[in-house]
Write a structure and sequence with these properties.
It comes from Christiangramia antarctica. Keywords: DNA damage, DNA recombination, DNA repair, Metal-binding, Zinc, Zinc-finger. By secondary structure, the protein is α/β, with parallel strands linked by helices. The protein contains nine helices and seven strands, in the order H-H-H-E-E-H-E-H-E-H-E-H-E-H-E-H. The protein has two domains: 49 residues, RecR Domain 1 (Helicase, Ruva Protein, domain 3); 148 residues, Dna Topoisomerase Vi A Subunit, Chain: A, domain 2 (3-Layer(aba) Sandwich), CATH 3.40.1360. Helix content is 45%, strand content 13%. The strands form two sheets. Strands 4-3-5-6-7 form a five-stranded mixed β-sheet. The protein has a two-stranded antiparallel ribbon with strand order 1-2. Strand 1 and strand 2 form a beta hairpin. It is elongated and about 65 Å long. The protein binds zinc ion (ZN). Zinc ion binds next to helix 4.
């Protein structure tokens, strides 16, 4: 793409590094911003910078949070003995939207994926095992998407805690194999949490 302006080219280059955004889309977005009042660009940059500088991970569940303890973990009316294991904040948001779950979460930050060079140590698996070992968890619900990586991750964690005093379950698969949690509709996802099944049963099929 030939630009007559270095400044424009630079902005397009930056925007096009975002996932799913090619050079053409980046150019359209940047030109759109240029047509809007300057204050809009300032607000956009400030919101992103602010997010970047001030965002934290909850010290208990590792969800993205504004405070040391996220709102969910800090809510004393929730059942802290039930912990739902998810990949990232999008899954937390999807499950929260169902209004069917009153336990806490544990956000792994990804899935084990040797192809992408992601091993157990890059995820928050260790703190999860520690939590279970400390006897703070009565039930662990595996809610990773049922892809090869999701299944591998579930099984890895399951093997680590198999002998400990904890009940394990997995969300019922109204959600078809390979579907990401965030795309499941609220009713289906809500039902699959309510009708969760013992994790061992999910290994047999
Ligand atoms: Zn939390």
């Amino acid at each position: 793409m030939d630009f007559s302006s270095k400044l424009l080219e630079q902005a397009v280059d930056e925007v096009s590094q975002l996932p799913g955004i090619g050079k053409r889309t980046a150019l359209r977005l940047v030109l759109h911003l240029l047509k809007q009042p300057e204050s809009q660009t300032v607000q956009l940059s400030e919101a992103l910078l602010n997010l970047r500088k001030n965002i934290k991970l909850c010290e208990n569940c590792f969800n993205i949070s504004d405070t040391q303890l996220c709102e969910i973990c800090a809510n004393t009316s929730r059942n802290s003995e039930i912990v739902c294991v998810v990949e990232d904040i999008r899954d937390v948001m999807a499950i929260e939207n169902t209004n069917q779950y009153r336990g806490l979460y544990h956000v792994l930050g990804g899935k084990i994926s040797p192809m992408d060079g992601i091993g157990p140590s890059q995820l928050t698996i260790k703190p999860l095992i520690d939590k279970v070992q400390a006897g703070k968890v009565e039930e662990l619900i595996f809610a990773l998407s049922s892809t090869l990586e999701g299944d591998t991750t579930n099984f890895y964690i399951f093997k680590q805690i198999e002998r400990l005093e904890v009940k394990t379950s997995t969300i019922a698969r109204g959600i078809s194999v390979g579907d990401e949690l965030e795309y499941a509709d609220e009713i289906t996802l809500g039902r699959s949490i309510t009708n969760r099944i013992p994790f061992e049963n999910s290994l047999k099929n």
